[in-house]
């Protein structure tokens, strides 16, 4: 698409708009259902999936919706969960972190694990699926890995500072894993573990 002598890549333009507007809808708390995690599943999984199928007219597996290199993915998942588990064992007990996540944790360990899975599946598909693989086609994987981490980091504003300042690096690491494995599933597993483990520690259900 060309406007006034300026060429705009249609796919990149749509991805930039989506990665800006959808978090705004989320931030302003437009309710689609009675559960915020389900709202985020719709915003960050269902809508991107429909964009891939109906607008791009492509297969979702080209955007990381597949197992990919599961051997490499499993190694990254085990290493990521082990490393973050050790860090969180101490960090999640800090009064700022503990208070923040205790207030936001669902009732019961089962609901924490289930609702976090629903929410994180959407989050990871949006950033490490649609945005990462979509931008990589136009810009290459290096820029895409860092660019997809930017809106992801801004979505952490309002959380404890020690967490927020690290998310640009965590988001890039998740992007790297997704690109190396060809799948968003492994960043999802690690992110699901991180959020659930943090909430379980903060609420005193483990430890």
Write a structural description.
This protein is mainly alpha-helical and about 210 residues long. The chain has one domain. Helices cover about 75% and strands about 0% of the residues. It has helices at about 10-25, 35-55, 70-90, 95-105, 110-140, 140-155, 160-165, 165-180, 185-200, and strands spanning about 1-5, 5. Strands 1-2 form a two-stranded antiparallel sheet. Strand 1 and strand 2 form a beta hairpin. Helix 1 runs antiparallel to helix 2 (about 35-55), helix 5 packs across helix 6 and helix 5 (about 110-140) packs antiparallel against helix 9 (about 185-200). The chain is globular and about 60 Å long.
Q: What is the count of helical runs?
A: 9
Task: Give the SSE string.
Answer: EEHHHHHHHHH
Uncertain segments are none
Spatial sequence of strands, sheet with the most strands? 1-2
Could you write a compact summary of the structure shown?
This protein is mainly α and 207 residues long. 73% of the residues lie in helices and 2% in strands.
Secondary-structure map:
Elements: E1 2-3, E2 6-7, H1 10-27, H2 36-55, H3 70-91, H4 95-104, H5 109-139, H6 141-154, H7 161-164, H8 167-181, H9 185-202
Antiparallel strand pairs: 1-2
Helix pairs in contact: 1-2, 1-5, 2-5, 3-8, 3-9, 4-9, 5-6, 5-8, 5-9, 6-8
């Amino acid at each position: 698409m060309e406007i006034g002598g300026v060429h705009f890549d249609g796919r990149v333009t749509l991805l930039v708009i989506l990665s800006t507007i959808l978090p705004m809808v989320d931030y302003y708390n437009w309710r689609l259902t009675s559960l915020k995690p389900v709202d985020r599943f719709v915003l960050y999984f269902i809508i991107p999936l429909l964009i891939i199928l109906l607008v791009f007219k492509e297969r979702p597996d080209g955007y990381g919706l597949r197992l990919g290199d599961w051997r490499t993915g499993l190694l990254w998942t085990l290493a990521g969960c082990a490393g973050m588990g050790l860090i969180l064992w101490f960090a999640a007990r800090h009064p700022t972190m503990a208070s923040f996540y205790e207030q936001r944790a669902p009732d019961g360990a089962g609901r924490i694990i289930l609702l976090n899975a629903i929410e994180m599946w959407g989050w990871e598909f949006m950033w490490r699926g649609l945005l990462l693989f979509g931008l990589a086609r136009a810009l290459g994987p290096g820029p895409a890995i860092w660019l997809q981490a930017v809106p992801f980091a801004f979505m952490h504003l309002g959380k404890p500072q020690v967490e927020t300042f690290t998310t640009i690096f965590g988001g890039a690491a998740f992007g790297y894993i997704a690109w190396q494995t060809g799948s968003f599933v492994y960043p999802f597993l690690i992110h699901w573990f991180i959020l659930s483990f943090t909430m379980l520690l903060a609420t005193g259900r483990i430890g």
